[in-house]
């Protein structure tokens, strides 16, 4: 093997080793340990558009993620599985602790967490824009979702979550 061929092969090998570091790969599997959705393993479909009723894998904005980590709810960088409760052009409102979608009350927010620390609150009404969704797991009373943070950006959604092996919640 000539010296230039050996050098070329070495450089090509080095590039192949570093290439995966710089290429963002989609999340394909997620383990959910939060009570907001059945605990277990989910396949993530990053191509499907999220529709009302879908469970999605999502990231919170940095300020929300920081709060969740600071309080020990969720480590930084760990995605959540939440339910899409509304898309554009739905009207979402929070008045006091009551959250409504298109005029129908769908959930109640709590003022404080189980340790008595105040939870974030928003108030008023919004018509969701085309690039927004409202994430709300209404059947889980202590889910940290849109009832506390308001609408979310669609771009924060990694994909639609499909259960592979989950343990359903007990009533």
From TrEMBL:
GO terms, biological process: signal peptide processing
Gene3D superfamilies: Umud Fragment, subunit A (2.10.109.10)
Domain of life: Bacteria
Domain Peptidase S26: 28-162
Pfam families assigned to the protein according to its UniProt record, in alphabetical order: Peptidase_S26 (PF10502)
GO molecular-function terms, A-Z: serine-type endopeptidase activity
InterPro entries per record: LexA/Signal_pep-like_sf, Peptidase_S26
Ranges in a coiled coil: none
The protein, known as: S26 family signal peptidase
